[in-house]
Amino acid sequence: MLRRILIGLTLVLLSAAPAGAGTIVVRLTFAPGELVEKSAPAAATAAGSVQVAVTVADGRGNGQGWTLRLSASRPVTVTAISARCAAHSTCTLPRAVRAPSGTVPLQAARDTGMGVINLVVTIAPLPAGAAPVPIGFTIS
After folding, report:
1. What is the mean pLDDT of the chain?
2. Rounded to a whole number, what is the distance in angstroms from the first to the last CA of the chain?
């Protein structure tokens, strides 16, 4: 009886042909991310310069660059912008197309500004006695 079981098992194992070697093609598609800006609420005041932390995440993977726009109810002046890669991010720091101007504090050149970037945008103080001006940012 045991002999019949062993013979049957051997026949089953021998009849299971080994998998044929071949080429396996795996097709991957790239799912691009988004272009996102995030900043805390801030306001320019007459008391002194204001530094606003802005995080830009460009996960589109196309290297088109982007434009950071400032929104305020009245004109404010950007005096400086600093940039560094966010922690645990591989990024390409933005290279400005031109100096800050009007409502465009930073326009990242093509093939720059990719990944997650922490910006610090410094806003000049308002004239003495001026009411605080809320500041916001958008990106495109």
Report:
1. 87
2. 78
Could you give the CA distance from residue 90 to residue 44 in angstroms, rounded to a whole number? Answer: 32
Q: What is the CATH number of the domain that holds 60?
A: 2.60.40
How far is 54 from 116, CA to CA, in rounded Å? 11
Give CA angle at 115 (110, 118), nearest 5°: 100
Domain span at residue 129 reads: 35-139
| Alpha carbon distance 113, 136 (integer Å) | 20
- Residue 94 is classified by DSSP as -
How big is the CA angle at 97 (ends 92 and 98), to the nearest 5 degrees?
A: 135
pTM, 2 dp: 0.74
- Residues 20-28 have a mean pLDDT of 67
Q: Is the model's pLDDT at 69 over the cut of 80?
A: yes
